[in-house]
Write a structure and sequence with these properties.
CATH class of the largest domain: Alpha Beta
Oligomer: single chain
Radius of gyration: 25 Å
CATH topology of the largest domain: Rossmann fold
Number of domains: 4
Number of helices: 20
Helix content: 25-40%
Largest sheet: 6 strands, mixed
Strand content: 15-25%
CATH architecture of the largest domain: 3-Layer(aba) Sandwich
Distance between the termini: 31 Å
Shape: globular
Length: 527
Amino acid sequence: MTEPLLQMTGPDGTGGAEPLLRMTGIQKAFAGVPALRDASLRIMPGEVHALVGQNGAGKSTLIKILTGVYSRDAGEVRLMGRPVDLRSPREAQASGIATIYQELTLVPQRTVTENIVLGYEPRTRWGAIDWRAADARAREVLSRFGIELDLHRALGSYPTAIQQLVAIGRASSMDTRLLIMDEPTSSLDEREVEVLFGVIRGLKARGTSILYVSHFLDELFAVCDGVTIMRDGRTVGETRIAETTKLDLIAAMLGRDAEEIRAAGRTQLATDQSHAGPVFLEARGLRSDRRLRNLDLEVRAGEIVGLAGLLGSGRTEAARAVFGMDRIVGGTLKVNGRETRIGSPRDAIDAGLAFLTEDRKVEGIIPDLSVRENLTLALLPRLSRMGIVDEARERRIVDGFIKAMGIRTADMDQPIRELSGGNQQKVLLARWLALEPKLLILDEPTRGVDVGAKLEIQSIIAKHVEQGCAVLLISSEFEELIEGAHGIVVMQEGRSVRKLSNPGVTEASLIHAIAEPPDMTHAEAAE
């Protein structure tokens, strides 16, 4: 998959069919910064077509141009052979394009019927909503999927999988020619995913084309016919699913040479742990209610263990389960040699764990509070007596961390929203270090910060590891894992499938470990 664009055939593997959709040479910039440079997309009638790429590849921007949310700066969009210029989502819907977003755009307080006909309610001759006809339409839509619901019950009272099917039913009832599904399985369990796949196959059989966006590569091979790969705002590959492999897709997404990765072949299994102290955290067969299917993991005092894998591999889900943010439904977890039940973040903190989450804006900072208030948020129970905070002690602690971590701020009472991203991240890291944790879980700790701040954060982490702190490090940057971690656990589809030890890991061997299926791992380990 090293060609700029591979030859595409029809859904049945033959050429010559007219595409339902053809986007060519699409360009889009925001404030002068290119988001799309030369993007293309081709979808055949009755085809399930995947769109893949790392975060920032341009997938969302391309879809928003297709659905009329954004206007393109250059390029052409042709629908059923005719050029179109869709200027709003309503125009896109009128042209037969419907979108089901990852966050469902439904009204949970409204009934099933109301959600299905919302915006397209049948009317009586006097202009009132014809609820009998609305119920009939809703019943007919649901019957396509083989499900029966109480049409007058609030949709929000049903499980997420049912709501997802209602969203699909609503979209398919609007004379949809092209249905866009954005991460449709992100909140579904395995059984619900199979139900969704059955619905997708049914829609395809009726001639509906589907654009399927997902980070779960196994799903693409289960339901998709073709795939388009994007990287850095460009379309870099297009092929039939049956003619490619997971390794080829990953190599194209990352801009690496697939043959070089294959040549890296077998990876070094972890054996040497002489650098570290006793095991502090041990997980065996750990499963959660959020896509974590099987986690085997050990983290020792004074050791950094990296979690590697593609988006959707289960890295964050592993961290959330260990920290008590997701419910553990199977397996065992030991902390400091003792089997432990962690049912909440408070339990985790009490056990000596700390968790720096991936999204500092949503789950980290409280923008209107000061640097001081953000830094001591987790420490407040230890700074308070009978509900009164020891402000003098609080200020001494904050001042110490500002100096030790080089946090650049006018003063500790400056609103944290006014700090740079790197300094915000250092405040959040200080929040957890103030608790003197035994295990520090870091999810993308250097994402979105400049090079200087990145080096400072890595130096702070290394210093605490030297003092005996254990670290579980999640990073999408292979270089960060290879250079910083003593061992790397590879995740696939919610499972830990391989552990590599450093020194000895190369970028090519790590990508190979991420791409190879688990059965290859076991075969290699036995050799």
